[in-house]
Each structure stands twice: as structure tokens, then as C-alpha cells.
Q: What sequence folds into this?
């Protein structure tokens, strides 16, 4: 993925969503993004922006539940995985994570990718989300 807009600093959830919207233009089917960074750093917010940028409904994007993978309909389907509560690699496999990574029709956006480090597809782009001063967030390439 060639995305000239990073690194970015955002001062609000709206601004983080806007980065996701703009970055969506650079995504192609088969791409995978690892969204790294601590809780509350804006990963899910960014996913809302990507879904909106691809013509989907950002309101469909939810924060972690007990479902590992969510699918959102959009120009390019978005497969959103939140692995925060993942207990084991076996659980990831059982949830069909590898099959999602092998699907070449959509883009995979993975929160807490460290939980399945060895399973992420080759060529995955890593984005790092972090808290910064004054409630800001930074998004940079890993
Ligand atoms: N600049 C910002 N970018 C993104 N979220 C922000 C920002 N400032 C405050 N927030 C708040 O931080 C939280 C980010 O949550 P979320 O996107 O779910 O983070 P994560 O998925 O990384 O845990 C939200 O409650 C959001 O309103
Ligand atoms: Mg999240």
C-alpha cells in the first residue's frame, strides 16, 4: 500500500476517521493492515473511516465483542478482526482467520495483530496507533 498521508496526528475521533477515509483510496482487494497500538488509541475509529471511505456504513463497525471477525459490505468488502480477547492461536484458526487472509476479494484490518504474529499474511502493512499529548493520537507506519 502506497499511502503518502502517514504519519498523521489527529486531535479528534473525526480526524482519525478522516485519515481512514483518505487511506481507503490506497487499498486494493487482498490487502491486509495490521493495526497496532494500545487500547483507546483509535484503531476501531480508523476502521470506521476506512469502511466509510470504501462506501460502507461506518455505524456497522463496532468495538470489541466476543466475535473475532466482522464483515462489512463496501466497494471492497472489509474484514475486521479484533484479537484483543484472543486466548490462543488455535482459537484464531477456529475463527477462520487464515481463510480471511487467503480471500483476495476484500481487505483485512486486524486489531491486536501481535496475538497472531506468525499468521499475518506476507506483505501486511503495519500501522501504529499511539496516544500523544493533549488527547491527540498519532498514526504511523510500523
Ligand atoms: N484523536 C482521536 N482519535 C481517535 N479516538 C480519539 C481521539 N481523541 C479521543 N478519542 C477517543 O478515544 C477512543 C478511541 O477508541 P477506539 O477507536 O475504540 O480505540 P482502539 O480501537 O484503539 O482501542 C474513543 O472513545 C474516541 O472517542
Ligand atoms: Mg478497537
A:
Amino acid at each position: 500500500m502506497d499511502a503518502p498521508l502517514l504519519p498523521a496526528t489527529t486531535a479528534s475521533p473525526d480526524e482519525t476517521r478522516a485519515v481512514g477515509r483518505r487511506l481507503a483510496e490506497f487499498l486494493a482487494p487482498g490487502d491486509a493492515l495490521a493495526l497496532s497500538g494500545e487500547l483507546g488509541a483509535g484503531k476501531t475509529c480508523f476502521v470506521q473511516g476506512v469502511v466509510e471511505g470504501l462506501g460502507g456504513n461506518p455505524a456497522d463497525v463496532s468495538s470489541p465483542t466476543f466475535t473475532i471477525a466482522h464483515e462489512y459490505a463496501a466497494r471492497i468488502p472489509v474484514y475486521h478482526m479484533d484479537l484483543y480477547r484472543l486466548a490462543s492461536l488455535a482459537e484464531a484458526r477456529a475463527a477462520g482467520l487464515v481463510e480471511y487472509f487467503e480471500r483476495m476479494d476484500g481487505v483485512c484490518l486486524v486489531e491486536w495483530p501481535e496475538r497472531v504474529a506468525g499468521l499475518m499474511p506476507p506483505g501486511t502493512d503495519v500501522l501504529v496507533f499511539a496516544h500523544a499529548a493533549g488527547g491527540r493520537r498519532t498514526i504511523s507506519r510500523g
User: Anything to note?
Assistant: Residues 3 and 26 are 6 Å apart (CA to CA). The beta strands are 8-10, 32-36, 69-72, 78-82, 107-111, 125-131, 137-141. The mean pLDDT is 94. The pocket of adenosine-5'-diphosphate (ligand 1) is lined by residues 10-13, 15-16, 37, 39-45, 63, 111, 129, 135-137 (CB under 6 Å).
